[in-house]
Design a protein that fits this description.
28% helix, 4 helices, alpha+beta
Length: 124
C-alpha cells in the first residue's frame, strides 16, 4: 500500500482486477521434489470456501505422469508442471463442459472435509 500511496495510484481504480481463475491443471507425478505441490489443494479449498455461495469455484485437475513433458514439448518450454485458466480464456466454456464428465479426482468447493478440526470444502 505504501507504494500506491506514494505514486498517487489507487489499487482497484487504476489497476483493474484480473478475471477469476476457473481451472488449475497440475502434474504432481512429474514434480521434484515430490511435496512441492502438496499445499495447493488446501490453498484452493480455503480460497473457494471464502468465496460467495454463487461464485464459480476453482477446480484442480491432477494430470497423469508424463503430461508435464508433453505440455512442455507442445509449448516449447523447458518444463510445465502447472497451468491455470481464467474465465476470459476463449475455450473456458468448452473446457468446463469437458471436465464435467471426467472421472477421477477433481477438487472444487462442494464436499466438506475435516482438516485439523476445521471444516473446509473439498470435492474429491
Amino acid at each position: 500500500m505504501t507504494a500506491f500511496a506514494r505514486s498517487g495510484l489507487t489499487p482497484y481504480k487504476d489497476h483493474p482486477r484480473r478475471p477469476p481463475l476457473i481451472q488449475i491443471f497440475l502434474c504432481p507425478a512429474d514434480v521434484r521434489p515430490v511435496g512441492f505441490l502438496n499445499k495447493t489443494p488446501r490453498l484452493i479449498s480455503r480460497f473457494n470456501s471464502s468465496m460467495p455461495f454463487d461464485a464459480t469455484p476453482i477446480k484442480i485437475v491432477p494430470l497423469p505422469k508424463g503430461v508435464a513433458s508433453m505440455l512442455a514439448d507442445c509449448t516449447r518450454m523447458r518444463r510445465i508442471v502447472a497451468m491455470a485458466f481464467d474465465s476470459k480464456f476463449k475455450g473456458s466454456l468448452a473446457l468446463s463442459l469437458c471436465l464435467e464428465d471426467v472421472p477421477g479426482p477433481i477438487m472444487g468447493a462442494t464436499q466438506t472435509h475435516k482438516n485439523k478440526g476445521l471444516k473446509s470444502k473439498i470435492q474429491i
